[in-house]
Amino acid sequence: MAEEAGLTVDSDGFTNEMEAQKQRSRDARAKAKGGGTKRLEFIAEQTAWLAENGVKATDDSSKYAWDVETAASIKAVFGTDGFLEEGSSVGSGETVGIVLDKSSFYAEAGGQEADLGTLVIQSED
After folding, report:
1. Which of 6, 54, 69, 93 has the most Cβ atoms closer than 10 angstroms to its Cβ?
2. How far apart are CA 44 and CA 89, in angstroms?
3. By CB neighbour count within 10 A (0-12 exposed, 13-18 middle, 19+ buried), where does 108 fall?
């Protein structure tokens, strides 16, 4: 369309500025939420990484049941620098996000607050 109007588009410049704006938005949101720890959130880049690495969407069908225990497996771990490779570790006190195959937690969406709960890690023994 731009070409038809005799205009050119700086696609690289647009992409760079869009990424800079996304980062400013993330930084402003994190500052507004406060808390002192870096806020982790899944956005398009993270969901794309999950899809590219064969991680299926979490089955959250049990979120409508009250006070349930849902057995689940960890499919990915996300840290402040991205997804961790198998065998990687994070430092004590670091914040991580865990992607599960199943969850009874209700995710934050449409202005609603997310569920709070406890994850209990059990060994395979």
Report:
1. 69
2. 24
3. exposed
Residues 35-76 have pLDDT tens digits of 556 667 778 899 999 999 999 999 988 888 877 788 899 999
Report the C-alpha gap between 18 and 15 in whole angstroms: 5
Residue 79: strand pairing partners? 82
CB 63 within 8 A of CB 105: yes
Contacts of 77 (CB under 8 A, 6+ apart): 83, 84, 88, 96, 97, 98, 99
First-to-last alpha carbon distance for the chain, in angstroms, is 62
Residues 79-112: pLDDT tens digits?
Answer: 888 899 988 888 888 888 899 999 888 777 776 7
Alpha carbon distance 76, 53 (integer Å): 10
Spacing of C-alpha 62 from chain mean position: 20
Q: What is the spatial distance between Cα 112 and Cα 107, in angstroms, rounded to a whole number? A: 8
Burial class for 99, CB neighbours closer than 10 Å (0-12, 13-18, 19+)? buried
Token pair recorded at residue 71: 């057995």
